[in-house]
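ARCHIVE CARD
SHELF: 3
SLOT: left
DATA:
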Amino acid sequence: MSRWAPLAALLMALGLSACASLGDMVAPGSAAAPLSPEAAASAAQAAARRPQLEIEADSALKPVLLRSLDLARAVASPDADTINELEWARLIAVAPEQAQQALQTEGLFEAQVRVERASESPLRLKLIVTPGEPVRVGRLTLEVQGELADLAEAGDATAQALKAKLQAQWPLKPGVPLRMSDWADAKNAVLALLRAQGYASASWAGTGAQIDPAQRESRLFLVADSGPLYRAGGIDVEGLFFHQLDRIQALADLPPGSPLTEAALLDYQLRLTKTGLFDQATVTLDPDPALAAQARVKVTVKEAPIYTTTLSLGYSSDGGPRTVAEHLVRRLLDKPIQMSNKLEWARDAQSWTGALSTHLNGHFDRDILGPSYARRSDLDLTETSHRLRVGRSHERTEFERLIFAEVERSEVCLDQANGVCLSTQAFSLNTHYTWRRLDSVLLPTEGYALQLQAGMGWSVDKNGTDNSRNKGLFGRLYARAIGYWPLGGLWTSQARLELGAAASTNDVSVPLSQLFWAGGDDSVRGYPSRGLGGTSVGPLEIGSNLLATASVELAHPFTAKLPSVQWAAFIDGGRAGDSVADLRPALGYGLGLRWRSPVGPLKVDWAWGEERRRGRLHLSLGVNF
């Protein structure tokens, strides 16, 4: 338990928050260049003579009153000191009625308001609010007409579920205070849900709220007109020049007559984007209700160049300076085939990755041929790996599958000149699966993603230290799960669990690419990449057969006006090893900065590695799953 004490302390600390109270005084102010002492004194005297208004009310009501009162605007005006007494008297007289009308939008129909003069020269006013009990929702009537009602009455299960969801998700339940802003938001949410489910022309046939101030109760009446359900009738594509129309249309997965839900259109747009063939892709539908039974889907694309070459420079705390060169051919020999070559050169690691793949077909499959080479050096240790992969992928938004055969030759050397090396040649069959149920693949805040990998193969190794050879079978299993939960009040959370295991017969070495390490940006922060784990084979250190890591993170925007910029607190734990006893978790915890950018979350983290007794900076972009 003592090893998890930092987690408990972190969560307790997050339960505390500090808030800066805003001043109740309404008075104009401005920024200016530095003044002389005489000018500053004169400005201070002028400010002291200006009228001021103090609002004595609940902090949540003050912004409403400040927006609604002529008196508040007059006090804040730069010309406040020129307003005559007659005008002040009028403003003071109408302020209570204006305040009461504003407070009714907050459900406060019994509010009592009065204005007191605290002083005459300078004029100091106090507006005092006694709110009374709010009006609460009493009886609710929410009905639906249009095609949704017809389908539900005919027994359509999807329509019945949508009607039930509208009722269940209506936020203004009986007993809840009725505020006009909440009333407007609730009505907008109903229409948004209907339109997202394929009823693109949904509208309100009628709404009303009857208020009984004496009973402090309201009765709500709402009738939503779903309009027609928009169904797929065909796909029109604009902007194609190089690529085949039938392949682009086949990616839609929208059979004639299928509902054109918001999710279906967004999935189509995401699939087009993921092909890598387009710089831009937008998918919309023709909103004409008369054509809803056979609505046309409109696709507008901007094709990416057939040939693209990029060169980038970077730096990481793990590998130092880094150069990456990549060349991509999106249509090879005028065939629906992509070819890419990526060369990465860093201080301690160099790699080349090639790929030849077909474009996605109508079944969302593509064939893949991928050779690669990698070399990594760490002090006196050098690793090299040659791999060739042949397989097929199936790529949808919520589900991906990759099945492939792989040939690999790897070598790890402590002293290559003297033959202190362990080399491995292996052939394996592998399958990878990914499931996603997320509100956004790019910037998730709710849902989960699960990844499973399994592989089995035949390995032959040679230990250069004693020239021994082993042959045998090996297998590998890996699982990674990540979940996202909104906590309310702009708080969000996420948790990750990662497990892996590799084993072999006859003590044969498992190929390097099939082994595990822990530590780094997307593992246990506070430690370098591959800083936790490793197995000694004679004088050599290679990856481990077991892996277990976990992470918990909480985040909150710095300000509600800029929700895309957040601070975060996290704790990670885990390790790689060769036995369960070796998996005693190393802890890393710290604070981070998040920017929810258009291309994915940018994360900057500072983490304290408990075992290393030092901090470490981590930088990453995107979500890995």
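SLOT: right
DATA:
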Amino acid sequence: MPQPLPATAPAEAPPEEPAVTPYRARLVPTGDATLDGLLQAVSNLIALQEVAPTDAEGLAARIAAEPERLRPVTDSEGYWAARFAITQQGEAVEIRVTPGPLYTLRRITVEGSPAPELAAGQPARAEDVLAAEAALLTRLRQEGHPLARIERQATVDHPAQAMDLAFQVQPGPRADFADPVVTGTERVNPEVVRRVAALRLAERSYSPDRIARARADVAALGPFASVRIETGSALDAYGRLPVTINVRERPFRVISANAAYETNYGASLRFSWQHRNLLGGAENLRLDLEASRIGTDPDLLNARAALTWRQPLPFGWDGTLVGGPSVVRDRLISYDRNAFLFNLGYERRLGDRWTLTTGPTAEVGESAAPGNPLTPYQLAGWAFQARFDNADSLLDPRSGLRAQASVTPSYAFQASTAYLPLRVQGSTYFDITGNGRSILALRGVIGSLVNTTAPNVPPSQRFYSGGGGSVRGYDYQSIGPRTPQGQPAGGSSLVEGSIEWRQRFGESYGAVAFVDVGSVGTQSFAPMDAVRVGVGMGFRYYTGIGPIRADLAVPLIQQQGSGSFGFYVGIGQAF
């Protein structure tokens, strides 16, 4: 007999979700603008009112938790007796903070030396205390104390509205670096990494700056995606600080290409290929192919092909061997050139700041002023260069000095002339306010062809001025002597100078004002009556890798062959 089917239970209705309770949170000003800004940034009631709506129960939880979230802010600003009142009327939530009295530092005791730069009577702000402690620790480490420690105890006396601080400063011993140990290499010879880092570290006194420079040197080898330097927590049996360099390799073969377009000069293309570890010792072989003025008159095409070899620790010597051959076709406003070039330099660092480079140079080709028949030339020389650099940043220096001097005894076979191209340049930076936000930057260049004059050497060996890396506001190579046809002829001497004020605003923005001057002369020293002056202003947007630069400049002295203004964009400061 058929059995009756069981009755189907009615479907249960889904539970109703609690209704969202909209609200608008507002902080009542305390009278301290800095404190108000910090409270606004930390408040959950303000931050979540739009992005995370909640129901009545959730809102009540936020209100209850808000005082404990805000209290560290008032404490950090020295208001250790602050009171908090949060009220709700309909959708309006009012956050009222009564800071109370500003506490001050009373007794500061220090066991050991030196003492942090704090004084009784100053506001008891946590940020000031922590900054003074960090500055002291940095100072001790820069003085060669790698294991320096500072212990701090803070006591708040509410009736007296004061804070007492007790520091125990333990500088620890001064120490030298031990010979580095390398980990993480797979196909790169670790001995190359060890020796490159040891040039900065081994048997030298401890310094955070030396660690940073050693890391930069290892990273500059090329084969590594990351470089990390770790120091030991205790000295070894010889009283030295253990150092471990951990690297992670990256792909060794690299292909890159880029394209650009300028209204005046047409399109340009660049292709490069490189191998970052050709023989296993971080050797770098690079091929570059470039072409510019594409799409304009074919007779104006510029091209370059270059092969560059970079060899760390050549023949077992400390230092780097770098150079190679290149072929160029130049069609510039100052000269035409077809040439084969070769240079090879041995680069050796002396100490932390000095670098010396020397090696042979040679050039064989033909050149002439634009539109004239090309004439052959042959050059040979031996280059000497010295560089000094103690600036605090590559792309955005705020203090320090950079200087470079180069001299290349040369012989021009076509003219049977021995001569000496000499160039000295430098830049220095002054942090006027001490916080890195107002910088005065100065640059100077002097060049001279000793024992000859410009007509006796090929145009590519002469001095030119004007353009983004020179005197802004004037066209590239437009300053100096000219041919009877009005084209830049190049000179026998060069003088340039720049002064630039760099002012930063907020976290990411800045502006500059600058004056550039330059002169190119026909004799061994540039005549001052031929000086050209460019003035301008610029904008900076600061990123993690350096500032993005945009400068607008105008020439104060108009001249033939130069426009009425110049606009320049790049990465990093102008100098």
